[in-house]
Structures are given as C-alpha cells and as structure tokens.
Write a structure and sequence with these properties.
alpha/beta; globular; disordered N terminus
Length: 195
Amino acid sequence: MNRRLVLAAALSLAASAASANPFAQTIMFDPDTREPLIARPHAATARAPAIPREIVAFQGAYAPGTVVVNTAERRLYLVLADGRAMRYGIGVGRPGFEWAGSPTITRKQEWPDWRPPVQMLQRRPDLPRFMAGGPDNPLGARALYLGSSLYRIHGSNEPHTIGQAVSSGCIRMLNEDVVDLYDRVRVGTRVVVLR
C-alpha cells in the first residue's frame, strides 16, 4: 500500500511538472513491447488533430474484416459486423502521390526498420539509407505492408500530419491507432483504397 502512495505522488508530481513546463516531454508506451511510442514536446502533441478512434455506422458492400481507406475523407475503416466499422484518422499521399487499389496485407512488422525506396531517394538524396526501428523511425510503432507495392499502412512520429495529405503514398496513423489496427487484422486481410 505504501508503494502505491509513493507511486501516486510521483505521478502527480510528474504531471504537475509537465503542465507547468510546456516543453516537457510526453512519453506513451507500446502496450505489447513497452517501447516508447512517441517522445515529443507537449507543444507538438497539442498540435495533433483531434480525430478520435471510434466505432461508427458504416454502409458498403465490404465483408467484415476488410480495411477501407477513404483518402478523400482521410479516414480508415475496419469493417465490423452489423453495419459498423472502427474509424481511424489517417494521413494520406500528397498531390501527385495519390493512388487507389485493392491489395492485401502481405506482412506485418512491429517497430519496423526503414529503408527508403529508390524512388524516394532520387527525390530526397539527403535521406538515410537505413533507420533501425524505434520511436524516431518514420514508420512508427507498426507497419502493414500492402501487396508487392511500396506502400504501407504505418504509424507516425509526426502526429500533426494525421488528417493531412503529406506522405509519398503511404497511409499514416497515430502510433496508438496503428497498434490497435495491427492487433485486429492479419496477413491476407483485404485493403480497399479509395481516391
């Protein structure tokens, strides 16, 4: 019981210090691996759009378990039973990098490494050729690889980009949202990307 009081007091002090200091860091942890999900100043977190993950009514001729990406809405839907879906906010491809299709998830990876594709390196030769997985990696906490394409549904260490058209075609999600989706889908899941 005494340890709980000490822990509660320490958490209270940390919360007070964080609210008093707008540059204090907020760290969220992956529920599975206990790795930090994001370590950014409060100011960056405050700019993150308020697009809550929620169950919504959904109409469409998609089987339960299908992932539907509506790039115009900047929302991803995981189709559930009974006319419902789990809805997530996403970031999508910027102008010139939009696409549509119906791939399947061919691979899932926790804390994926990042190797920018040749096409991206041609546009941005300043990028590193390799980044180990972790909280500063652009692919975030999870990646779902789509068919044989260069595209992925992945987490992001830039939460302020969710709801925006800024990527090179990948579908970005908040790290906590991509962890939730990752746990709900499997390899072979159909993904429908609408333009």
